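<derive_structure_tokens>
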Amino acid sequence: IDRLMRRTAARTPAPEADPRRSLTAGLTVVALVCASCAALRSYDVELSDTIALASAGRLKAAIGTLESRGKASQKDLLHFMELGELQRLQGNLADSQAAWRKADAMVQAWERVARSDPAKLLAGAAAYAVNEKLRPYDGHDYEKVMLTTRIAMNHVALGDWDNARVEIKKTHEREAVIANLRARQVEEIEREAKTRGAKTQFRELNGYPVATLDTPEVAALRNGYQSAFSHYLAGYVYEALGEPGLAAAGYRQAIELQPNQPLLERALESLDRPRADDGQTDLLVVIETGLAPGRQSRGFSLPIASGNDLVWFPVSFPVLRSEEIGAMPESIDIDGSGTLAVTPLTSIDAMARRALQDDLPGIMLRGIIRSTVKAAMQKQARKRDPQGLSELAFALGGLLTESADERGWRTLPARISIARGRVTLGTQRLRIRTASGVDSVEVDLTGTHAVVSVRVLGGRVFTLPPGGETKIREARSTFSFAQALW
């Protein structure tokens, strides 16, 4: 499309030619650009029905709505990440793993390029594009890491601790690939911006909602992809498999990412203690609330030099709109075993904001390049067609295609917290205090380590017993669930 627009501009008839031909040429470009549906689609709008259905507990309908979007050949990384999450909520762990395996294969292909020929990925960092949404979606950094983390959680849910270990090792390797590529990408963008004399700091963008990204919680993050929960889960899985050395490394990394949390420090200290055969299990409860924030396109104006003139061009950049974060319970009561305090561990909401903050320099640079090219094309059209018909057509095409990329893994939880303690083996009842009431979950605990996972979404609590349907209830009063064995 880029080449077509430049060729059409170059071939626009001279002023003495019929201006209607100029208009036709310009409108042809508009039609061809608009035919590229990806440039006009809004992921934020497209996924709204799926999100609403999932929040209402209508998971089968949510999955059906998601699957109805596009042909099978058009299913991309984002589709399989969303699908796997919805199937996990449904309790369909086998299909969830199958969907996430497809997504992970795509990320692994990205990793191979990042290792062998990173220049291919970096080349697009400052490349001109008609629209951001025409770029292949490789996933945000934190999404790539959370993908292997959630695959590991499914393995643990199925009692497959060895394969959970494989995914955890993959998570560490993926973080290293991301760190290396991110450093090179920053250098490339800074070099390109300096060459072009472009400003790429979002704080300098007039009207941008800086407060949505510049928060203490975001500033406290080391980066936009390392998760304290992912590393704590790594430590817990290694500990369950009898590998205290690797467990200690996982716990230390979690402490570095989320300091001053006694629960994390106790996990590290307890590794030196011998396991007691006292009829109890080491129970880890994972509590997830809300939804990851959505990216939304918002228009801004950038001053672009065109000869001796300064033209203000409309450019769209993504801003984050918070979804339901959900109230995190403060504690969990266990019949006969006391109360476990809940410790906040990871905010995916904050990670998404940090990721956008890190991405904005490149997004702004591409926006500046895009606007500069459009300005040059309109100037050329003005020279060749004094009546302004083709210029109008080019301007219309640019306006129609100017929207920010809103893609992102929306069904991820907004926040992840944990509770941990020694609990008597056998059937136990966990009472989870939420803002809307108390949820009672009956679990059958076996083995030296056990994990129970709960998701609070849209005023409902989801439990995921393997091999059965997800139990969903509105969190308004005390009620019971069927067994939720993790």
Notes: The CA atoms of residues 426 and 445 lie 5 Å apart. The longest helix spans residues 348-384. Confidence is low (pLDDT under 50) at residues 11-17, 30-36, 465-486. The two ends are 51 Å apart (CA to CA).
